[in-house]
Design a protein that fits this description.
156 residues; 7 strands; globular
Length: 156
């Protein structure tokens, strides 16, 4: 299915530049960032947030692996806490390189700067995301009562 005809972003368009579309990005509470081979492709707004169940994570890990170096990051600005950006789900395959992941993380940081958020939060459950890599990306553990894989990146 063509990216422009997906139900989640039907009628909302897309952003092919963060700075050029900053005013539009500031109005999107939910979105999907797509990076391929280390290059930014687009940000697709969504009408509703991405919900990732354990079943979907398993399915994407074993049945729907991207065949190329691609990373999709789903984010949300919860309406109750608009000062925080939540990275809901990141989908990357075994062929995804670190430069692609780093580019996606930089785009999340740029979107957070547009919204002027206090922090970015995420739950990292992938075996390839270890404590050292998360620190390198600027994230530290938090919410220890919820488990060991909750991270926060405070914006200064």
């Amino acid at each position: 299915m063509n990216r422009n005809t997906r139900w989640a972003n039907l009628g909302l368009g897309q952003a092919t530049s963060v700075n050029g579309f900053a005013d539009r990005i500031r109005t999107w509470h939910y979105g999907e960032i797509e990076v391929c081979r280390g290059e930014f492709l687009a940000i697709y707004p969504r009408w509703w947030p991405k919900f990732a169940s354990q079943w979907e994570v398993w399915r994407d890990s074993y049945l729907r692996r991207p065949p190329i170096d691609v990373c999709r990051i789903y984010y949300a600005f919860p309406r109750r806490t608009p000062d925080y950006l939540t990275v809901i789900y990141a989908h990357a395959g075994p062929k995804t390189q670190l430069k692609t992941l780093f580019r996606g993380v930089r785009l999340v940081d740029e979107i957070a700067a547009i919204w002027k958020v206090k922090a970015i939060v995420c739950q990292a459950t992938n075996a390839r995301l270890n404590e050292r890599l998360m620190r390198r990306l600027g994230y530290v553990r938090h919410a220890f009562s919820l488990g060991e894989n909750h991270y926060i990146k405070r914006m200064t």
